[in-house]
Design a protein that fits this description.
heterodimer; A: 128 residues; alpha+beta; OB fold (Dihydrolipoamide Acetyltransferase, E2P); six-stranded antiparallel β-sheet; B: 346 residues; Gyrase A, domain 2; Elongation Factor Tu (Ef-tu), domain 3; six-stranded mixed β-sheet; six-stranded antiparallel beta barrel; 7 helices; 19 strands
């Protein structure tokens, strides 16, 4: 099962709440579907994101995917290590593969996202 | 698995990059049974192929193959193919999966005389064993003289007891073999080859790696880099267009000969992305700020660790070193024409 300390979107992003901030990345299922990640495009610190707004792209050898922010907020940190080592998204999607941290503007919205169990069912239904 | 022309095909097994690197450094095994096989047989076979293909078929000896194309009157190609001479009256034309019916119809429409053109695609499975270790892996399994088999030569010989045609050809830029077997022999042979090659680094490889490998070697993909609007000369395939008077006429010969002499209006070039981003198939291309077409193939190149691609540029702006731009999802990214093939085995 995916980590239970965070919430998930239908588009396979996760957000982990850390105080008033949310750390964001993509799920193990998403990285597996993409295959070897070779390029990530992430926003600048200071960018204000709406919920479900695109904040960048992740590219594997064979495909490009948009990244959508699970929550609204201002980008306060970007994982710059991914520029030279994007493969961390494959090897450690829930750890070193994190993408951005936002200061969450609407904390209650997080609870509308799927927990790990619901996300697991979502993935299962998508695989069919 | 992805659907491809009615076939369920694996895009990757262990991972595209790992498979790509294995083929460059050791070996990979591909199931390319989707490829089509058209048999052209009879006393008139050679004459028929001379007037329906671009390359000079008379140069082939028995057991020899050649890269060629089925030209159209416009100078474009209905398909790019490999012609195998099994005997003076027996030829096999290996065609792209998506073009099997089209090619068969196009050949039949050119009135074969003294020969039959038959679609035998369902009688052949095709496994491609590619990479520097390919010969070493295959040698213990076959009595064929692999060491003496030159590139673009082939032999009919058993592989581990399976009746096969072994051809020193491929689509990866590496040494290697393509092994034609009856379909019911493909599964056991696949397993046996993987087992025999494991110690030498052989891995199963999918369509994804096949595409990145062929692009690093600048091998054209029909439907991307070649289609019914691109002339063979523009595509840089003048070397498979025979202008020998003895070959006689074939569709598009006049156009192709003129282009070969005077130069084509545009040329297929290889490029590297200089800025940040991966140029992919269909992304618009700009030269001196003006729209100039689109990327025909583009990828991250795993061996070279660069973003590379192919596109058609106006001939006057196609020299190595020419800078142009690719529109990567709304962002203009700098690219530069580079020498090709991007990768050449040493």
């Amino acid at each position: 099962m995916d980590p239970t300390d965070r919430r998930y979107t239908k588009e396979h992003e996760w957000v982990k709440v850390e105080g008033d901030r949310g750390r964001i990345g993509i799920s193990a299922y998403a990285q597996n579907q993409l295959g070897d990640v070779v390029f990530v495009e992430l926003p600048e610190v200071g960018r204000k994101l709406k919920a479900h707004e695109s904040f960048g792209t992740v590219e594997s050898v064979k495909a490009v995917s948009e990244l959508y922010s699970p929550v609204a907020g201002e980008v306060v940190e970007v994982n710059s290590a991914l520029a030279s080592a994007p493969e961390a998204i494959n090897s450690d999607p829930y750890g070193k593969g994190w993408m951005i941290v936002v200061r969450i503007s609407d904390a209650s919205a997080v609870n509308t996202l799927m927990d790990a169990a619901a996300y697991g069912k979502h993935v299962e239904s998508e695989g069919k | 698995m992805v659907a491809f022309g009615g076939w369920e095909m694996p895009v990757e097994y262990s991972g595209l990059i790992a498979e790509h690197m294995s083929v460059r450094k050791a070996a990979g095994l591909f199931d390319v049974s989707h490829m089509g096989e058209l048999a052209v047989e009879g006393p008139g076979a050679l004459a028929f192929l001379q007037r329906t293909t671009a390359n000079d078929v008379s140069k082939l000896a028995d057991g020899q193959a050649q890269y060629s194309a089925l030209p159209l009157p416009s100078g474009a190609a209905a398909d790019d193919v490999v012609v195998y001479r099994r005997g003076g009256e027996r030829f096999l034309v290996v065609v792209n999966a998506s073009n099997i019916e089209k090619d068969h119809r196009w050949l039949l429409s050119q009135s074969p005389e003294g020969c039959e053109v038959a679609d035998k695609s369902d009688q052949y499975a095709l496994l491609a064993l590619q990479g520097p270790a390919a010969e070493e892996i295959l040698r213990p399994l076959s009595a064929a003289d692999l060491g003496g088999m030159k590139r673009f030569h082939f032999a009919e010989a058993d592989v581990d007891g399976h009746p096969a045609t072994i051809s020193r050809t491929g689509y990866t830029g590496e040494d290697g073999f393509e092994i034609f077997v009856p379909p019911d022999h493909a599964d056991p042979l696949w397993r046996r080859l993987l087992e025999a090659g494991r110690e030498k680094g052989l891995v199963p490889a999918g369509l994804g790696a096949r595409d990145t490998l062929r692009l690093e070697a600048k091998l054209c993909l029909y439907g991307n880099d070649l289609d019914e609007t691109t002339s063979l000369i523009e595509a840089g395939l003048g070397w498979i267009v025979s202008t020998d008077p003895a070959k006689g006429d074939y569709p598009g010969r006049c156009v192709l000969e003129t282009q070969k002499k005077d130069g084509p209006p545009r040329k297929l070039v290889g490029f590297e992305v200089v800025g940040r981003g991966i140029a992919r198939h269909g992304y618009p291309v700009y030269v001196d700020g003006a729209a100039a077409g689109a990327v025909t193939s583009g990828t991250y190149a795993p061996f070279l660790q660069k973003n590379i691609g192919l596109t058609y540029l106006p001939a006057a702006r196609s020299a190595v070193g020419t800078d142009f731009q690719v529109d990567v999802r709304g962002r203009k990214v700098d690219a530069r024409v580079v020498p090709t093939p991007f990768y050449k085995r040493t």
